Task: inverse folding
C-alpha cells in the first residue's frame, strides 16, 4: 500500500524556487552529445529517474559518461554506439524510449528495448512505421504498436520522403529527426519527413530542432515538412547549459497566482526555448500578475482568476496545473486539445476527473477536453497518483483551499523532480 504524504492547509505562498533542469532538454542533449564528434560538458542537467534511465542506457551502449551532480561530461561516439548488442530497461521515460529506439534502429544492431508495464501501454507504432519505411528492422515483442521492441541489424537508409503522424505524440517526430543523420547514405542525400496529420505539442519539436542546431545539424522546416540535409553530422558544442524545467515551473507559478505570492522561479525566463513558458502567459490572461526576466518568472495574485476556454495543444504537461487553478477561479475553465493526456504516464483525463471528484469538484470530461468549475468549499481527500509525477505535483496545490490534502505515493515525483515537496514546503506559509 502506497504511503501518503499529508499536506496541511496552506494559507499563502511566497518565496523563490531554483528549478531543476528541463527533462526534455536533458535527455535530448544526453543523446545528441553521445552521438556527436567530440566531448560535451552538460551543465544544469536534471537529476531524476528519467535522466538516470537515459544515462544507464547510454553507458550500456558503450558511451563514456562522467557525472558529478548536475554536470555530466559525455564523450561522443561519432555517430555509432560501440556496443551492438544490449538489452535496455527504460522505466516509463518516454523521452528516453522513443529517441533511443529511433537511433538504435537507424544504426542497426541486436537490441531489446522495454520498460515498466505502463510503458508497454504507451503507443509507439507511428514511429516504428516511419523507421520501417527507411528500412529499419523493428519488431514487436508483445502487442503490435507498443513496446517492448526488438531491433535488428539492418539499419536504416537516408533519403526520400518519410510519412509520420503528428497527432498522437510529438516525440515520434522528434525521435525520427534526431536519428536521421545516422542513416546509411546520410552523407550524400537529404531526408524529408512529412506530417500526415496535424502536429500536437509543436514547441517540443522546436526544442528538438534548436538543440540539433546547437550540435551542428540544421533542420529546414516547411509547411508540414522537416528536412534533414545531406552531410548532417553531430558535432559537440563544447559546453551546453540546460535550462530549468518550464513544466515544473507551472506548479510554483500557479501557487503564486492562487496563494498571494510573489513566487519566483529561477533557471528559466523570457529567452527559454521551452514551450511551457507559455503557461505564464495563460495565467496572466486569467488575471494573475506575472513578471518575466531573462532568468526568472514571478507570479502573484492579481484581480482574481477568470474562467474561459484554454487551448492546451502547445502546453499539454503544464495544462494539468490549470485543472487545479480552475478550482480557485471565478468561473469554469475548459481545457481543450488535451487528447495526448490519455497516452502519458497514465490516462490523465480519467485520472484527473476521478481525483478532482474526491475534492467535491464539479467537472465534465470528454475525449480530448476537461471542464472544471470553481470549488466553494474544499474537502480533504487522499489523492491517488497513478505512478504519475504530475498528478502528485499539481494536486499538492489544493492544500491552498483550506482543507489540506493527502498525496498517495509522493515518491513518484522522483521521475522528474525528487525535491518537489521540499521546494513547495519552502514557500508555504
Result:
Amino acid at each position: 500500500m502506497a504511503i501518503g504524504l499529508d499536506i496541511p492547509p496552506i494559507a499563502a505562498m511566497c518565496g523563490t524556487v531554483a528549478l531543476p533542469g528541463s527533462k526534455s532538454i536533458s535527455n535530448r542533449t544526453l543523446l545528441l552529445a553521445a552521438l556527436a564528434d567530440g566531448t560535451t560538458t552538460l551543465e544544469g542537467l536534471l537529476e531524476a529517474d528519467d535522466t538516470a534511465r537515459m544515462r544507464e542506457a547510454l553507458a550500456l551502449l558503450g558511451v563514456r559518461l562522467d557525472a558529478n551532480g548536475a554536470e555530466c561530461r559525455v564523450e561522443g561516439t561519432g555517430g555509432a554506439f560501440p556496443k551492438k548488442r544490449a538489452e535496455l530497461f527504460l522505466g516509463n521515460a518516454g523521452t528516453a524510449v522513443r529517441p533511443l529506439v529511433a537511433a538504435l534502429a537507424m544504426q542497426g544492431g541486436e537490441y531489446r528495448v522495454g520498460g515498466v508495464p505502463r510503458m508497454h501501454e504507451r503507443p509507439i507504432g507511428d514511429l516504428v512505421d516511419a523507421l520501417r519505411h527507411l528500412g529499419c528492422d523493428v519488431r514487436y515483442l508483445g502487442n503490435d504498436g507498443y513496446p517492448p521492441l526488438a531491433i535488428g541489424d539492418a539499419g536504416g537508409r537516408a533519403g526520400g520522403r518519410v510519412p509520420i503522424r503528428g497527432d498522437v505524440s510529438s516525440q515520434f517526430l522528434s525521435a525520427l529527426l534526431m536519428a536521421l543523420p545516422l542513416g546509411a547514405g546520410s552523407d550524400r542525400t537529404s531526408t524529408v519527413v512529412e506530417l500526415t496529420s496535424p502536429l500536437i505539442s509543436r514547441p517540443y519539436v522546436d526544442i528538438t530542432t534548436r538543440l540539433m542546431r546547437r550540435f551542428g545539424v540544421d533542420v529546414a522546416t516547411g509547411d508540414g515538412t522537416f528536412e534533414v540535409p545531406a552531410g548532417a553530422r553531430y558535432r559537440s558544442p563544447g559546453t551546453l547549459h540546460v535550462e530549468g524545467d518550464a513544466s515544473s515551473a507551472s506548479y510554483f507559478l500557479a501557487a503564486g497566482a492562487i496563494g498571494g505570492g510573489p513566487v519566483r522561479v529561477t533557471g528559466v525566463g523570457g529567452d527559454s526555448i521551452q514551450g511551457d513558458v507559455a503557461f505564464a502567459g495563460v495565467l496572466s490572461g486569467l488575471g494573475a500578475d506575472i513578471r518575466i526576466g531573462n532568468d526568472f518568472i514571478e507570479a502573484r495574485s492579481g484581480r482574481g482568476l477568470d474562467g474561459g476556454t484554454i487551448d492546451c495543444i502547445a502546453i499539454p504537461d503544464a495544462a494539468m496545473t490549470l485543472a487545479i487553478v480552475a478550482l480557485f477561479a471565478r468561473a469554469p475553465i475548459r481545457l481543450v486539445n488535451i487528447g495526448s493526456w490519455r497516452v502519458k504516464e497514465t490516462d490523465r483525463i480519467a485520472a484527473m476527473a476521478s481525483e478532482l471528484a474526491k475534492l467535491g469538484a464539479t467537472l465534465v470530461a470528454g475525449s480530448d477536453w476537461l471542464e472544471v468549475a470553481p470549488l466553494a468549499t474544499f474537502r480533504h481527500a487522499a489523492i491517488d497518483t497513478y505512478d504519475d509525477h504530475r498528478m502528485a505535483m499539481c494536486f499538492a496545490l489544493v492544500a491552498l483551499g483550506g482543507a489540506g490534502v493527502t498525496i498517495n505515493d509522493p515518491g513518484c515525483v522522483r521521475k522528474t523532480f525528487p525535491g518537489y515537496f521540499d521546494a513547495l514546503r519552502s514557500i508555504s506559509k
